[in-house]
UniProtKB/TrEMBL annotation:
NCBIfam families in alphabetical order: ATPase-IB2_Cd, ATPase-IB_hvy, ATPase_P-type
Organism listed in the record: Aequorivita vladivostokensis
PROSITE patterns assigned to the protein according to its UniProt record, in alphabetical order: ATPASE_E1_E2
P-type ATPase A domain span: 151-250
Protein name as catalogued: P-type Zn(2+) transporter
EC number: 7.2.2.12
Coiled coil spans: none
Length: 651
């Protein structure tokens, strides 16, 4: 029998892959065990509590006196000891009045008056509430981090005539990097290969693959979908788009909203007041009530402490903002802080730039009018002249596809401020604006007088041969964006542009924008926005796309950057970044902000409403420790579940 030849390299690769799978499996198992261990103390206490209550109910003979005390003490310690320890550490750090202290006093007090099951139950439900809170916060943070933390951990760099695998942090600007199918782009750069197809969902929230041509930008974190490609790096790893975005997301939670800051300040004042009121509730009735029983009033005070614990507020409000930030990231919108979620809800005026914001910022041929010539031949004369120019308009003309051989131009010279003059196929050709035609005694049709877009006129052998209209295309969702912004309740939409006023007015009219001004320098835009802000009751949001808009992005109430991946200055200056470059996401950002605020306000109303009712009942002796548990932990759980809804909402 012929033996099959074994390839040692394949064997090593298989062995390596097996080890990786085993490592991944072991890591997954370890994580699962770690997650389960967190719940063990609560499960143990719950089982002990249920058994204890059952033995109390059936009046089991041996379950009396010290055995009963020890049983409930054992049930209490797994969930109670960490809270007491946390409370003690807080006191050592000078923070006396915390929810840990409130829960410790209330539950130890319950043991002191013989209410053992209730003492265990309060601490158990508090511990369960903390677990739910921790899980919800991890989920909210995870939805952000999982979306963005796709930073590659290796790069194949061309060094010493070979591709070597290195840490992306060691790659310098200008080095050549190879990326295989299914791998992540390790650093920002430009594509050296002819073309590439990339999944940019982690960066932009857009699931549709993005096709990039040679010489165009590619961004770290994108996944290569088609063939082995090469890129030339343009930024170091620490400056790559994905690294900066991830850093901003992680730092966003540090920028607290005014609501969060108020609640935290309120809790610091509220908690000591509650403690002193509980002490007063225990001892003051002695002077006013005839049948005063210390244990009864202590029990009421303990109930009062449990009910008044501010954890529902302190937990659910930041969690609401976490949810809003995570939901926005999933939709390709990056808020730099919770405070901007609040500011977005107050916006009543939207000011936008034109080029690159509602238009694509790329010149395209809009119309070709050949007079006395067939269009392909006319365009070959024009392209022969424009081939030697680097102007964006020339680039747009050179994108035209004409069959057959191209024409060649000679003796091409520039006529300052007017255009080009040269010879093509032995014929004198002029390419440029109307003044060029008039200065050469060429009659221009009157129909061109009403054209506001950029126009390139052509004459061949002294006769007007036609013209080409060049225009900046509107983005695909530009009309829908204006419609949705209006539907979201924005009262005023304004366009400010550095482009010609006639073109700006035409675009504004086509899109149904209220007011437009063109021909503005960056400082002119700044002055216009400052005037609006000085006489506006609400908030002014400015949407721009690059370095020239940076001053206005910085000064406006809410600065929104379009195409933040391509503009470093926009990323640094703006408060909100639309990663997909789609203006329709502006309305979505407003809606997410409003949904977040609604959830936060619901949680505040729920916490205060339920606590107020049960506090009155508790002080009057009409509520037991079980109602107190619901007013504290139950409300906290409801608030957490309400906040988590943001992760599931569609806008």
């Amino acid at each position: 029998m012929k033996k099959k030849k074994v390839n040692l390299r394949d064997l090593n690769k298989t062995s390596s892959d097996t080890h990786k799978r085993n490592d991944a499996h072991n890591q997954s198992s370890a994580e699962s065990i770690g997650k389960f261990k967190v719940y063990v103390p609560a499960i143990f206490s719950f089982v002990m509590l249920i058994i204890g209550i059952a033995m109390d109910y059936f009046d089991v003979a041996f379950f009396k006196d010290w055995i009963r005390i020890v049983w409930y003490a054992v049930a209490y310690l797994p969930v109670g000891f960490p809270v007491i320890k946390e409370g003690w550490n807080s006191i050592k750090n000078g923070d006396f009045f915390t929810e840990f202290l409130l829960m410790s006093i209330a539950t130890i007090g319950a043991f002191a008056i013989g209410e053992y099951p209730e003492g265990v139950a309060v601490m158990l439900f508090y511990a369960v509430g903390e677990l739910f809170q921790s899980a919800a916060v991890k989920r909210a943070k995870g939805s952000i981090k999982a979306l963005l933390d796709v930073r590659p951990n290796e790069a194949l760099v061309y060094r010493d005539n070979n591709y070597v695998s290195v840490n992306p942090e060691t790659v310098a600007i200008g080095e050549k990097v190879q990326v295989r199918v299914g791998e992540k782009i390790p650093l920002d750069g430009i594509l050296l290969s002819e073309k590439g197809s990339f999944n940019t969902a982690a960066l932009t929230g857009e699931s549709k693959p993005d096709t990039i041509a040679k010489g165009e930008k590619v961004f770290a974190g994108s996944i290569n979908l088609d063939g082995v490609i090469e890129i030339k790096t343009t930024k170091e790893f620490k400056d790559s788009s994905i690294t900066r975005i991830l850093d901003m997301v992680q730092n966003a939670t540090a920028r607290k909203s005014k609501t969060e800051l108020f609640i935290r300040k309120f809790a610091k004042i509220y908690t000591p007041i509650v403690v002193f009121l509980a002490i007063a509730l225990t001892f003051l009735p002695y002077f006013f009530v005839d049948d005063y029983v210390f244990s009864d009033w202590l029990y009421r005070a303990l109930i009062f402490l449990v009910i008044s614990c501010p954890c529902a507020l302190v937990i659910s409000i930041p969690l609401g903002y976490f949810g809003g930030l995570g939901a926005a990231s999933k939709n390709g919108i990056l808020f730099k802080g919770a405070s901007y979620l609040d500011e977005m809800t107050k916006v009543n005026t939207v000011v936008m730039d034109k080029t690159g914001t509602v238009t694509k910022g790329v010149f395209k041929i809009k119309e070709i009018k050949a007079i006395g010539w067939k269009e392909p031949e006319f365009m070959k004369y024009l392209m022969a002249m424009e081939e030697q120019s680097t102007h964006p308009i020339a680039k747009a003309i050179m994108d035209y596809k004409a069959d057959g051989e191209d024409f060649q131009a000679s003796e091409v010279s520039e006529v300052a401020g007017k255009g080009l003059k040269g010879t093509v196929n032995g014929k004198t050709v002029l390419v440029g604006n109307k003044p060029l035609m008039i200065s050469n005694n060429i009659e221009v049709p009157s129909e061109t007088d009403n054209i506001v877009e950029s126009i390139v006129m052509v004459s061949i052998e002294g006769k007007f041969a036609g013209y080409v209209i060049i225009a900046d295309e509107l983005k695909d969702d530009a009309h829908e964006a204006i419609k949705q912004i209006r539907e979201s309740g924005i009262s005023k939409i304004i366009m400010l542009s550095g482009d010609k006023d006639s073109i700006t007015q035409q675009v504004a009219k086509e899109m149904g924008i209220d007011t437009a001004k063109g021909g503005l320098l960056p400082e002119d835009k700044l002055n216009e926005v400052e005037k609006l802000m000085s006489r506006n009751d609400g908030r002014v949001a400015f949407i721009g796309d690059g370095i020239n808009d940076a001053p206005v992005l910085a000064v406006s109430d809410v600065g929104i950057a379009m195409g933040g991946l391509g503009s470093d200055v926009a990323i640094e200056t703006a408060d909100v970044i639309i990663q997909t470059d789609q203006p329709s996401k502006i309305a979505k950002a407003i809606k997410i902000g409003r949904s977040t605020r609604r959830i936060v306000y619901q949680n505040i109303a729920l916490a205060f409403g339920v606590k107020a009712v049960v506090l009155v009942l508790g002080a009057g002796g009409l509520a037991t420790m079980w109602e107190a548990v619901f007013a504290d932990v139950g409300v906290a759980l409801l608030a957490i579940l309400n906040a988590v809804r943001l992760q599931k909402m569609k806008w």
